[in-house]
Amino acid sequence: xxxxxxxxxxxxxxxxxxxxxxxxxxxxxxxxxxxxxxxxxxxxxxxxxxxxxxxxxxxxxxxxxxxxxxxxxxxxxxxxxxxxxxxxxxxxxxxxxxxxxxxxxxxxxxxxxxxxxxxxxxxxxxxxxxxxxxxxxxxxxxxxxxxxxxxxxxxxxxxxxxxxxxxxxxx
Length: 171
Ligand code: FES
Description:
The chain is α+β, with helices and mostly antiparallel strands. The protein is built from seven helices and four strands. It has helices spanning 5-19, 29-40, 45-55, 59-68, 88-92, 95-106, 148-166; strands spanning 80-85, 119-124, 136-138, 141-143.
């Protein structure tokens, strides 16, 4: 995903600011990356390069760490964040079918953001609503007893709301 010049600059500045709190011993790498993600919402390549320089390790090793742990995002989150629960209860009730349905309508894979940055898709662990399994969240709203048809409905209602917003119509 292409970042704007401003986003790149912000990524470098914020990463340097955070990395300055760590003395360069490698145990600080993961906490530093977590802080970077907390601030930026993801860990861009610029941040990985800065971290590599700070901790004196090859950038490819930092990339390896970021991709190994699925808590890290590599792309900026979308304006609408779709999270599909993959906890045990949701998994048993077809959480993977719900994930595939979102991948189908959004045309991205889990962990990615749509090119217009409207939606990002990720998996989450149990969100505590197991009786409503399978569950998906759109932003902070929990949607239970999800089906592929409900995924279509949610997607199109958000698309419609976005379009109305662009056209200045009441939602
Ligand atoms: S497993 Fe999905 S809400 Fe608990």
